[in-house]
Design a protein that fits this description.
- With about 375 residues, the chain is of the alpha/beta class.
- It has eleven helices and 14 strands.
- The chain folds into two domains: about 130 residues, Rossmann fold; about 180 residues, Rossmann fold.
- Helix 6 links the parallel strand 6 and strand 7.
- The N and C termini lie far apart (about 145 Å).
Amino acid sequence: MTELAKRRLLQWAGLAALAGATALAGCGKKEEPAAPAAQAPASAAAPKPEPLKAAWVYVGPVGDAGWTYAHDQGRKAVEAEFGDKVKTTIVEKVPEGADAERVIRDLAAQGNKIIFATSFGFMEPMVKVAAEFPDVKFEHATGYKTSANMRVYDIKLYQDAYVSGVLAGGMTKSNTIGFVATFPIPEVLRNINAFTLGAQSVNPKVKTKVVWINTWFDPPKESDAAQSLINQGADVLLQNTDSSAVLQTAEKNGKYAFGWDSDMSAVAPKAHLASNVVHWGPYYVKAVKEVLDGTWKGNQRSIWGAPEGTTEVIKINEAVPEAVRKKAEEAAAGLKAGTLSAFTGPLADNTGKERLAKGVVADQDWLDKVDFYVKGVEGKVPSGK
């Protein structure tokens, strides 16, 4: 082999080695890791459900210390129970009639899903508005008309009136007790009659005088009516009105009276024999819960009293003799247990007509139709408002 041939052979061998090295370097190249796939954004938190809007319509001011105040305490119980699950609204001092209809309609239009109307005279306006808003729940206090989206709730305040009558019958010195009345409807007549029967259960000589004022809340009128009763010889007073005016008037005259709907013991402590209180909270909490969980049903009427813990006579004056106090407490216990009824025959009205036969206990139908005074109540029941 010539020298030239050797050189060419070595040259080709070098080129082949270089090519092989280059190929090996290419095969061993390390791949860069792929960029991680972008993660899907976390799903947004579910929106918080809107609170249930609930409204209350009041016939008087919240500060009346009586009826409206008691209802508003019940509304506050709803807020305490459900927190931000509910949003409550109130409209106070609403006259019964056309104004009530306007207010109830406005509340429904504003998105309130349950509306409570807290006076007897709101019944017809609520019936009318309920027909216009079938998806809204309507609740009427103390009435009797219902529909698919409207129901009635009431309390047996006459049970408290009976217990107060026991106290009045034991404390009166003149044997004359007085009652400041609002409107001649069964609700009020039951209270007058129960007050009288409770008093007569411990003092058969008791007579009851009544003054009608045709309003639920008018402190000057309430005070004037109380003064009129005192001038006629009444020395223990009860009322179906919404303020503390009767109790205050009794204190000015050195007589006794009762708190009504709420605890009024601090208003006139010397005159205060006891307070007839109403606890609306349990019913309001129940009704709102039913709307929240979808179990609310119309065409119902709920009437609660001592057995359900919604009525109670509290803070009996220390001046009441122990024997009288004991009789009042026994009456309250019997009403709560269902072993005593405020209305049991034989029962006659003040004209002598039998209204309940001997041994018959008044049922709800009978209670709904009371339009008379029992024996011992003086005068005649006015016709209408």
